[in-house]
User: Fold these one by one.
Assistant:
Number 1:
Amino acid sequence: MRLIEEIILLLLNEESGYLEQVAGWNLSCVLAGAVLADLDLESRIDTAHETLKLDDSTPVGDDLLDPVLATIVRDPEPRSVSYWVEKIAITSDEILDQALERLVENGILDHAIGGFWSLSRNAANAAYSMSSGESRAKIRRRIVDTILEDDIPDPRDAIIIGLANSCDAFRFLLQPEDYEASRERIELFSMLDRISRSVATAVSATSVRRTIKTATKPIPDISLWKLLRKDSFWQGNMSRITADLYRDYGPVFAIKAPFSKKRIFVIAGNKANIWVNRRGRMYLRSKDYISGLEEALGVSRSLPGMDGAEHYRMRKAQHTAFTKSRLNERLDELLHEVRVGLDSWKEGDVLIARDAIRSLMARQVTQLSVSLDLSDYMDDILSYKNRMLITHVQKALPKFFLKTPKMAAKGRRIDQVYAMIRNTHTPGQRENKPRDLIDDLLSLHASDPQYFPETDHKFPMIMAFVASMYMGTALAFAVFEMYSDPELLQRVRKEAEALFANGEPGPEDFTDEAMDTTHRLILEALRVYPSVPVQMRNVMNPCVVEGYEIPLGSRIIMAMTAVHYLEENYPDPLTFDIDRHLPGREETKKHGAFGTYGLGTHTCLGARVVEYQMAINLMMIAYHFDLEVMPSSYPIKINPFPTCTPRKSLKLLVKSKRPVFSSDRAVDDRAESDQQAVAITS
């Protein structure tokens, strides 16, 4: 294990899922210093003097160290250690990412969606032996014990202490009284080793110099009138609009409303997406823009409005509910719910694509999440949710538009649903039932009612409706593309025939190979038609994005899906091409090139499982139905507010239908339990 890996494990905070929040540039210098120290220990360089000396240019055979060694070899001029610390620190983000990935690959850390890391439960069996690699707890205990006891540290630990001290990490690693009592000892240990002395001095010097404010580029302003003149604006495709603006104005620009001095800043492009993923947690906050939505629902906190450690803890509590393994445990139930929903589509019906497929998804998503079929409530709740977004998040309408008699009645439907969910999740009602999201949330409440009080239960308990809306929208676009291309339809149908022609498939049948075409179609639909093309944040700490300084307190629009329409990421981006996702191309895997699920710590928690569930639905639709897009040769139209959806003008004619159930009739064996739930509520 290299020094940089030990530093990472030392600084890992499992409450927040990331490193202790030490000063960003100081951490960059420390990571650079750790790599230089390892090269010194490998006898490739000598840092004993003010000028760094190259002793041996032979590669170490380590992908963390060799790129830095190669950089030093290419620059034979005499340079100070401080120079090299500062030069390497500029690339510290890449070094950090690589070190974190290696810790995951070797079984020391686990990586969760959203950029969170935690100590692996199998760390004891990791690829690193315990003699050379230790758990975070053991490394911390070793370093802390060295400081608090009378022992003299070995040279390697002296380096670690010196580096950790350079970024003031012991404020987090020690109790306040221990930190104050040990400061002199820490400073002494930091100067014991020649590597520690030179690198720590370099870290200190470059950190001081880095605080000097550098000039930033002026941020271009775009008036609303310029925006209105864009053809893409009238097409409703927000991803395309922001891609056009990115090409015209660069990665950071500001939109000004007429007769107002207020500016809303937009960031777009691959590098901006990468910056949010790596650094956003330190500069951006979601609480400000989501607070109005929380207020409208009568809750004090919600997962979208949380940041930092409390957000990570809530994600962990809900993580299992959004895994493929949990869905596979209830696969029979999922397939049944899909069949019940599809059985309502009759030959000769003309379906509004968006509404029909949202209803299909609502039934199964709510059943799996809250163990109730709440599809009858979907229209009212989604209507109320959309009005909340428009009034409290986008602020496009005055707040009283949420309080009209019609909207108030729809708001009361949320209270009815909440009561139904709570009344059907008592210990007696849940006996011998498969675990769902509500069970996980109630367990969190029981374990820590202060952290997750009953006043905050309503928001996550109705999130299944929001999830079903986004999934239904994405699936509607995928169905449109599939039935608009006969060849593509046949490819998906061929996969469906193999899975469904000989009885109900099990989890072992839904392999990557068995779903290859269908999955790639889903991915391309998510690229071309992302339901949430932008997200909002507030700047909580001054930040510089690609050389543009964004003021403290500003509202930011993260146009994370603008990259979907950039030629450098996706050649001919307007073409729907599922082969983009073939091995060897895999264009969505380019760094920063795919933003469908959001960015940074608020990346969609169920990103992996939704593709799986949508693919199952798409194959079952292809297998059972011959649909016709109406009108024929329909040019897709998008409604961009409050999220991107197909317009109601997109319709599907059910030309023919293969029996959904073997008996050619739907038997909803859950109707009785749902009626009981309503009776309990009444």
Number 2:
Amino acid sequence: MTELLAPAGSREALIAAVQNGANAVYLGVDEFNARRSARNFTLDELRGVAAYCHLRGVRVYLTLNTLVNDRELHALSSVAHGASEAGVDAILVQDWGVLDTLRRVIPDVPLHASTQMTVHTLSGIEEAARLGMTRAVLSRELSRDEIAELCAKSPIELEVFVHGALCVCVSGQCAMSAVIGQRSGNRGLCAQPCRLPYNGGHPLSLRDNNLADYVSELQDMGVACLKLEGRMKRPEYVAAVTGIYARLLREHRKPTDEERAQLAAAFSRDGFTDGYYTGKHDLSMFGVRPATERWPEEWFAQLRADYEQERLCTVPVRFSATLRAGEAIALRAEDDDGHAVTATGPKSEPARTRALTAEEIETRLRKTGGTAFSVSDCAVDVDDGLAVSAAALNALRRDALMGLEAARTALPERRSLPYTAPESVPNPAEPPRLTVTLHRAEQLTGALVDCAPARIGIPIDELAKVDIARYPSARFCAILPRVYRTADEPRLREMLTALCEQGLTAVGIGNLGHLALTRDYDLEKCGELSLNVFNSAALRFLKEQGLDSAAVSFELRREQIRDLQKCLPCEAVIYGRLPLMIIDNRIDAGASRTLTDRRSECFPVLDVFGGRCEIENAKTLYLGRRSDWQDIGLTYARLRFTTETPEQCAAILRAHIDGADCAPEDLTRGLFYRGVE
């Protein structure tokens, strides 16, 4: 059965979701979730929330899917212990350090790979399974054919977003809000810069996703879970959308015209899009919510009145009552999930005036108001001439239902192990060695190679254009694309094999699926920026996966990088435009291939692997005038060349080697001293 997963950003939204047919809800507690601005729940509230849902047959998934720094890991483990004890059914994760920590402290709780983990290939899914995760939430950019293929071959459950807001950037790969406003989307505080105007329009604002027409198709593919977005939206919205999708799933059909109109009335940005799913990547995918749009308050009021009664979702129960002369009254209660309890009452007595009939007893037993149960069948076997008080029957019914409730909300037995911080590792005493990454093959020159950087990283499709054997002294790193498809893997392996034959020494790992892609190659494995390394536990995890070094997140400030326990050699960017977004289609950036915002800041748009584009920061990170990046334990310091000419690349590298000033006109210190919220 395909599960319908609804958002629960508040207690009222949770009730709205459950009462309107959700099979599962996802929610956050405290600050460790990707919607920190939602009301969310406290850890103390979680046990009651889980009991409310489990009683009604609804699963509870906790989102711990943000990046966590070293000082937060211990607190996160306490949340994990509490969540396990509350009986949550699974936890969603993004951060490798969080994954590593949860596997150690609550090893019996199922873990799901969040869409923030950027899982979009079969190899990535298989790696998630190898790491013990039981479900992967697929990237939202996949087409119907790609989803179908993954479902046919996946060793674990797959979850697909079907309705709600879309990020134009591939999930888990957006740094725009962090870099320009210190509000990190990877830490649950995205300021949504994609909804702002650029170039006089809104080329980054996607319409909301709507796959209501394809619910049956997704069911037939074998998708385990259909997910609705909306933890920041009103509870009435959750009720409306959940109710419609629940009916479509239950009845295995497409929406009616009325249901389509209701989905649009609930919320849309001047219409919906199914462009990713259908493979129609064009300007029709983009739109904004009209300023005149209003909530449908009358309809929402009716929805609210219905779900607040909490009688839309009840648990069917079958009663079997037995009344025998001189014997204790017995009432057996069973549900559809295999739970069964028997309650007993006082002995039946001969009637003094009028004997009770089976019909009268059944009428009394069916009065389950005020509970989560409704009686679907009631069988009464009563001897003639007996009487029993209404109070006794009420108590019998109450005891049976209480027993059934206890059985349905029973907590699973799980291990809870103490948190152990990553082992302390002294920082290297030597200053970091310079590395470079190039965006285009033509940026590679003999002058740059002569500067002898520790490593030269180039995207693999660009490096394939280079005869690297011409540069025997250079150490080249083929950077694998952080976004690609399963169908691209044979080509990537061909390029990797050919480059190895020419003397390739290293490969850049930026996605979970890259672990499988590179496992059979004898290459130095260098963790890329897209892995979002944010804490010491992530470094420990990546070392266990066979990586030889790791680039740390540029959302970390200087002191946080300094204090990492560097069991792996670490690298940080000290020069270059920082990558803000990677987008799985081309956007309208004009002939100049730049986006200009309201403050006249110009963001270059670069073409990258697979016809995608990458938005770079308007300003260039430059730490060269300072020396305090040299004493924080880095093994490598990266110069990231994107829009620079070949001559500029070599000159800037030479200036860094010589300690000369090469500050760009419009520089930024990035987040090196500020960090993020």
Number 3:
Amino acid sequence: MRSPLHLRGDIHMPVITAESVAAENAAAVKAAEASEKRPKRRNPKGKLGIFITCVTVMLALFHLYTSAFGLLPAMQQRSFHITFILFLIFLLYPATKNSPADKPTALDWVLAIAAAVSSFYIFVMYVSIANRGGMHTELELYLGATMILLTFEASRRVLGYALPIFCAFFLFFAYYGRSMPGPFKHFGLSVPRIIEELYLTTDGLFGLVSGVSATYIFLFILFGAFLSSTGTSQFFNDFAMALTGHKKGGPAKIAVISSALMGTVSGSTSANVATTGAFTIPLMKKIGYPPYYAGAVEAAASTGGQIMPPVLGSAAFIIADSVGVPYLKVIVASIVPALLYFWGIWCCLSLQASKLNLKGLNKEDLPKISSVVMKGGYKSLPLFVIIYFLVQGYNPLYSACWGIGAAVLLSFFKKEDRLNIRSFIATLEDGSKSALSVAVACTLVGVVIGMMGATGIALRIGDAILSYTAGQLTMTLIVTMAIALLLGMGMPTTASYVMASAVAVPALVTIGCKPLDVHFFVFFFAVLSSVTPPVCVGAYTAAGMAGANPNKTAFTAVKMALSGFIVPFVFIYSPEILLTNVENWFLFTQALITAIIGVFVLSAAIESYLLDKLSWIERVAAFAAALCMIVPGWRSDAVGLAILALLYFLGCRRVTARLAG
């Protein structure tokens, strides 16, 4: 981009060049890294680097082989997976900021080997453990205690203190059950019983959630690594720029489109921010958006990436297994909520751009969409390959294997994207390393699930919620929302969703809500915790890259994501808005159209702008109109449309009067 851009009023904007964007990208990434409180992952070189590469490649090949030719028995599949995960974490993640940044210490090696041995023991002794029917040996108690402690330490190194502290609370709760008050009192578990439950059964560290990590999640993260290494993420950025770069506030809309596209394969808000934000945040700042607003746009859009099918932030597979429905049904259910969420952000950006008189980038400086599609459109074919196999009824693992195979084959279309042996190995390594944080979170969450199952507290908490809310649906939903947001503070979405669903789903199912709808309700708010203060990793990452105030960025991101806080209530009260619940297509179409209009009016209320700046009374009226139209029903729709018509008339009159004057 060589020509100067006059984008905001008559202000002469600086020239945007590839070099300037690259320089600002580097500065943004550096700022983001500086904002992190935890030590960075090591990137060892030399013989140690070769050793790490071999281990990560072995892990990736194991998952590819078992996905293509058949999984091992559950305990063996999960224990082999966790063995490699814990071993790699202790070698790659320093214990403290003062630990060596280039190589593991002697203690790291000891812990890595101890963790690997304690987990691999389950793999080797699986048949013996199964035949003993719950009887354990003294050695297994020691190995189990070692693995539990080291799983906590590995999680602390990768994820910080929030998740380990929360899970530790459940260990104390299980042990001191007789001292707990009221409905939380139980018989209490002995230390050997706790270790046995967490180490020797499929209800603890090797439970359902780690099982999903050891199958679906890992393979789809690996699939994302192959898409990235073959240039698909760059195609997503180019496609978004060609499609929306010339529109009002174009770079912000590039962030929305590219984050939505990246969200189809990415399972992390922070990963989305780092991937797309390094390019879009500098552009947004250059055309006139304040730094905090640019960061908020990227944070809100990247958060929405986790509700985009087919991966849903790696939680789609857990939802399917928990509810007992086909994975494809989960994908179909997510389509309308995801579109409404991104539509809300899009409307906020358009109204903000109109209010600030922000123009888009010069069209001649942008790639043509036809050229982008012709040159790189084929790179998106692996996604369609996966969808095809899913629609044909194949399981997600088999489908993902074909998707990875398609990505590898398509890389040979162009020399610059071609995967040779070196880049193929590097992709396997990147995929394995990217899976570490999600995998250890899924493993540690097994502590919560195991202790809740062993003590029977899950149903009691559900009963306590219903007792507190008197079984009233709205109050139960609000309490569930609060639980999901609180549990999501500083935790990966998958972990917070699993814990919140274990606590809150039984209560909502008891009062008549559909299980899949309830799991989606909880999942939505687990995702939104990434931008909800006081601890919002996605917003803080974006703020670091934008050089903006973290709290201001976070609160602005919450405003932009406000439709996401309302849509879950809509599909609980009116399930027909989800494609999986459609019985009458006319009612569904009516509900969808009015919801789209309602989200637009909600955005107008958030930005305080509709044709012209809204007064506070008009803003309140816009909120009321939005709620009336978002909630399905012809009476509420009529009221909302009437208020919107009045607001539009008043805005037109003010604009006409100003132009005449």
